[in-house]
């Protein structure tokens, strides 16, 4: 080909590219204008694939016609409303028919039960026929089937509670078979409303058969939840999980109070089985369906609650403690497996494991309170706070430290009411708190030091070293713990006024020494240095405001002289440290 023809070809290609660029620029401006004028436009329904255009793009492209915005929610469309209202009215008609048959003495009881079963079967069959013949009438088929199963439940109730054809266990077993059939059909149709209706219908009708919240009712709803678990896990139906789990929790809660009026030796085991299975089903749901994590957490929190009440209310102290400890061990085992076993580390979501740990902490606290007398609650909780702090430091888990902090807070306030009341520090004629006060004060001081130190060491929260509320709370707890332990030790030796004055002298000196230790350690650690300065100010305030007014004679002289000499010595030592070591943050002061 000659050179001029090649130049012509390049010019043609350049012209086509320029034209394409202009069209793309125009399309971009049109799309920007469309997005600015209609930002929340409902996307159009997918249309049939169009044939590729045979002609070039028009100079003014046509806009896609969007589907009008729906003003009615999908669940409130007229077809859905009519179907479910029709099902409810039909069910009421079945109830009225049964009542009228009894009042008018139509036929015999056997014929009434058989007729009710036949009517329920017809409704279910009609639902199946509509589902097969008219796929667009899916809602109507589900409503018909749900109404049929509800009518069948009522027929079982009539045969058991009204006519006595079946004993209560057999009636519940028949109802469970009906529920399983409904769940199978719902799974086959992939219809969650049908499954929810079947489960709720069974749970509502069951108390009519048992005539009370006894172990038989709890066992039935537990089996119902177990039967619904495979379907809800397979399909990921959060609504079905709640519909099956909430009746179990409610039945166990009511059963715990029912046992106070009607004692039953198998009631508490039934409640415990319900709690354990609820926890296991919640864990399985969270593992297989991470999208339903919130539902699993809700079931996890609610499932053990009845057992926490039933144990102390219906059992002796030793048995109640064993049940609470067993639940705590189960939850701790699930948490440990999910955190440290490689096969399950990626299976259970992190938030679910955090919820498991929180419920385990609650279960442990409940077992502790059940096992101890009220006067020893604070000591027990503070001991557990110290143990959890050590575990959190070793395992490097911030969640464990959070549980330790909860135990520490509750233990501190309980100690204020029992072991170390503030009156023991202010009144000289108050009786000593004894060994319990000494132990509680030492535990408060130990937790106040260990908990924030472990939090800083594991470094899970970046803002922890600069958290003023945390360090202020820890400092106040440390001051109160050391003061209470010192006073309790002095009053153990003698309950005279001299022992009271000696205790306050030692408290002041102890605070001063502690402040100096923090200052010396805080040469390179800013928050410790600030804590030392604050504690020095608090010690001086106590010396001038409380000791000066309370102490008298020789005790006052000893307190002021010792405190002054200690401060002078510390000042000299602190100055020497500053000359030896350059402080990194000196410019910030």
UniProtKB/TrEMBL annotation:
Keywords: Membrane, Transmembrane, Transmembrane helix. It holds the Pfam family DUF2339. Residues 39-48 have a biased composition (Low complexity). Residues 35-70 are annotated as: Disordered. InterPro entries: DUF2339_TM. Residues 49-59 have a biased composition (Pro residues). The chain crosses the membrane at residues 81-101, 113-131, 143-163, 169-186, 193-209, 215-233, 240-260, 266-288, 295-315, 321-340, 352-371, 377-395, 400-417, 437-456, 468-494, 500-520, 532-551, 557-577. This is DUF2339 domain-containing protein. The lineage of its organism: Bacteria, Bacillati, Actinomycetota, Actinomycetes, Pseudonocardiales.
């Amino acid at each position: 080909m000659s050179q001029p023809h090649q130049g012509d070809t390049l010019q043609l290609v350049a012209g086509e590219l320029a034209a394409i660029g202009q069209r793309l620029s125009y399309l971009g401006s049109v799309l920007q204008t469309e997005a600015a004028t209609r930002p929340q436009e409902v996307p159009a329904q997918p249309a049939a694939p169009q044939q590729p255009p045979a002609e070039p793009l028009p100079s003014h492209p046509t806009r896609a016609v969007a589907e009008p915005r729906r003003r009615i929610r999908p669940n409130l469309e007229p077809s859905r409303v009519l179907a479910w209202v029709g099902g409810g009215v039909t069910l009421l008609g079945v109830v009225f028919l049964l009542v009228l048959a009894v009042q008018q003495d139509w036929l015999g009881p056997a014929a009434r039960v058989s007729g009710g079963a036949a009517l329920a079967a017809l409704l279910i069959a009609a639902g199946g026929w509509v589902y097969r013949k008219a796929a667009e009438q899916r809602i109507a088929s589900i409503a018909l089937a749900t109404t049929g199963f509800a009518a069948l439940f009522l027929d079982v109730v009539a045969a058991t509670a009204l006519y006595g054809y079946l004993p209560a266990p057999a009636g519940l077993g028949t109802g469970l078979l009906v529920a399983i059939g409904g769940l199978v059909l719902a799974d086959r149709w992939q219809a969650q409303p049908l499954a929810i209706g079947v489960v709720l219908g069974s749970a509502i009708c069951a108390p009519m058969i048992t005539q009370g919240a006894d172990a038989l009712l709890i066992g039935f709803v537990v089996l119902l939840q177990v039967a619904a678990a495979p379907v809800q896990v397979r399909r990921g139906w959060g609504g079905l999980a709640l519909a099956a789990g909430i009746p179990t929790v409610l039945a166990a809660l009511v059963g715990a109070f029912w046992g106070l009026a009607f004692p039953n030796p198998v009631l508490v085991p039934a409640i415990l089985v319900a709690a354990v299975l609820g926890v296991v089903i919640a864990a399985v749901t969270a593992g297989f369906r991470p999208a339903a994590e919130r539902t699993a957490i809700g079931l996890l929190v609610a499932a053990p609650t009845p057992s926490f009440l039933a144990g102390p209310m219906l059992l002796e102290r030793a048995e109640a403690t064993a049940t609470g400890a067993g639940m705590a061990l189960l939850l701790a085992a699930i948490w440990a497996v999910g955190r440290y076993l490689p096969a399950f580390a990626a299976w259970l979501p992190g938030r679910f494991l955090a919820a498991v740990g929180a419920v385990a902490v609650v279960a442990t606290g409940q077992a502790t309170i059940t096992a101890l007398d009220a006067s020893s609650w604070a000591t027990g909780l503070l001991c557990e706070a110290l143990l959890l702090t050590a575990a959190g430091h070793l395992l490097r888990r911030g969640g464990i430290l959070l549980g330790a902090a909860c135990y520490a807070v509750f233990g501190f306030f309980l100690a204020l009411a029992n072991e170390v009341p503030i009156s023991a520090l202010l009144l000289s004629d108050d009786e000593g708190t004894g060994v319990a006060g000494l132990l509680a004060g030492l535990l408060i001081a130990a937790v106040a030091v260990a908990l924030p130190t472990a939090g800083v060491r594991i470094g899970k929260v970046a803002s922890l070293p600069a958290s003023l509320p945390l360090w202020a709370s820890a400092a106040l707890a440390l001051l109160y713990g050391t003061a209470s332990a010192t006073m309790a030790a002095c009053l153990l030796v003698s309950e005279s006024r001299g022992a009271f004055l000696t205790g306050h002298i030692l408290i002041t000196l102890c605070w001063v020494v502690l402040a100096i230790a923090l200052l010396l350690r805080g040469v390179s650690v800013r928050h410790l240095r600030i804590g030392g300065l604050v504690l020095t100010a608090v010690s001086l305030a106590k010396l001038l405001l409380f000791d000066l007014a309370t102490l008298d004679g020789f005790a006052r002289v000893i307190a002021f002289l010792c405190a002054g000499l200690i401060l002078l010595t510390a000042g000299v030592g602190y100055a020497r440290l500053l000359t030896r070591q350059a402080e990194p943050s000196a410019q910030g002061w």
